[in-house]
Design goal:
202 residues; 5 strands; three-stranded antiparallel sheet; Arc Repressor Mutant, subunit A; alpha+beta; two-stranded parallel ribbon
Amino acid sequence: MLDVAVIDDPAAAAVALDPIRRRLLAELREPASAAALALRVDLPRQKVNYHLRTLEAHGLVEVASQRRWGGLTERRLVATASSYVVSPGALGEVAADPEREMDRLSASYLIALAARAVRELSDLIRRAREARKHLATMSIDTVIRFRSAQERAAFSQELTEAINRLAAKYHDESTPGGRSHRLVLLAHPLPLPTEPQEPTCP
């Protein structure tokens, strides 16, 4: 089972977004039979079987094991991943694309960069899996609390200069066998915690 699978087929995305099928995918992080799932989600077994067949047809679940009970075969299914991300590529021509003209300091451009990363990684992961190779990536995730907007701007300037120095040091257009890598730096404010609402009097 993969940690994260990217769904880039529009039909598979529509299947995964159905509320009942989402629930079944969550339940199938561990193998289970249709009969066991029907009890957990409180639905008729026939309806569960219908949804499972649809999920299986789109590669979202697979057979984990089978066993015979008299003249019947019980299949235990498992999700193909612990969690899923729908690729922007599933939206076709209306998918976010940073190559389109937009303000490079805007939140929209940041979203488009993130969307491109998901789209490109989806293809790279698929190719690596088909070739039975490891895909080398790097990621950094941290939180910085700035004292002021001025310090945030100073940090941005210093970080840009540092990245430019490193890029100039290690970038090589001519070495045979070299491979280009995309480096994207994203920064955005953290969402504020949601305040609990006071109950209203009738």
